[in-house]
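User:
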Amino acid sequence: MTKSQAAPAWSDTIVALSTPPGIGALGVVRLSGPQAIAIADTLMPGKKIASKPSHTLHVGWLTYNGYAIDEVVISLFRNPKSFTGEDVIEISCHGSPYILQQCINACIALGARLAKPGEFTQRAFLNGKMDLAQAEAVADIIASQTAAAQQAALHQMRGGFSHELAQLREQLIQFSALIELELDFATEDVEFADRTALQQLLVSINTVVQQLMNSFKLGNVIKEGVSVAIIGKPNAGKSTLLNALLNENRAIVSEIAGTTRDTIEEVLNIDGILFRLIDTAGIRQSGDVIESIGVEKSLEKLRKADVVLYLFDVHGYNENELKEALTLLKDNARQFVLIGNKADHAAGITEARLGAYTYVPISAKSHINLDLLKTNLVQTVMQGKTNQESTIVTNARHFAALQEVHNSLTEIQQGLSQHIPGDLIALDIRRCLHFLGEITGTITNEDQLDFIFSKFCIGK
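Assistant: Predicted structure:
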């Protein structure tokens, strides 16, 4: 079903609180639908809001059945120049939960109904104000906790991702039309579509699709954050490093080996990326049952973490133990950074070598080279991909659809090389176009939309 087929003629008006619940200086109640202006007119008698132009503000008392609810500001947005593409009213009240609820109750009494989660944005999508990828970016912006997440969502909401996909889809549609035309002249054995040009286009599209798929790993990091396990032998300085990075005494530090028995997790924002730091128990053989459980948890965190920081004492290291640690890291860690702690030299030293091993020398206790470690950590995760204007896939639904697009493109390429009939190639192209359309919502279904928008907050 296409978006135009799915879009209903909305006959009802919805209302919801669009600011966070709780006490605040201000709260905003939003109305959208054909009765929105009439309801505002009734609630603010004497202002004649129905006769006012769009994009205007009106100050007055909000009343219902002769009862004054609050002195408010009403913002008027006439269709189609509104967020939803419908008539929209936004009522700014004082942020008392009681006042806001009274306002919502009055709107419902006058014919509105309470909005479902994400229904305002869903109406914006169905009314053609944005495509589905842009609508999902709205939720990502609301949920963003870092500058990187905000920039990725803004780029998508401005249509960067959609524009790339639309261009690819348009080019493929042109070839699809020519191949479909060939089917009408099947008995005459003619070819309207240049197979060589189609192969070149498929390679070009697949390159872009693969780049977008490859960006999902980075996109997931930006959106969800990076889990970083701090691993090492007892007394290597793991808890001291955690405290130094957080600039607070979060973990207990002592000279007694095995002080940390369980994992401790904290969040640190470095250059707009959220790092979930996990301090773990020292890895060693132990006869202590509790400590052994902690060591096993440390190994589990090592295997699951996005990045492992392995600490060792530059003065008390054992080369064989370091080799064993490197083998453990190479076999189990996704990415790791080797850190030589207790290197109390002048600040500003760069990465050093310890025989065959490259490491970052720091002093967690003296806070030496922590900035170098942070830079190294960001570089390990970002791998040079710092262009905020490039398209980065952050949505698992988009990634799954791109995988299907990639599979379809591969099948089309194989079909062309094997000279299969045009009707079979046309089927594969239709499948590819279907999954490209699923991302932007050009092709979608009601159940899919309900699922996507159900994850939004009520007032959005």
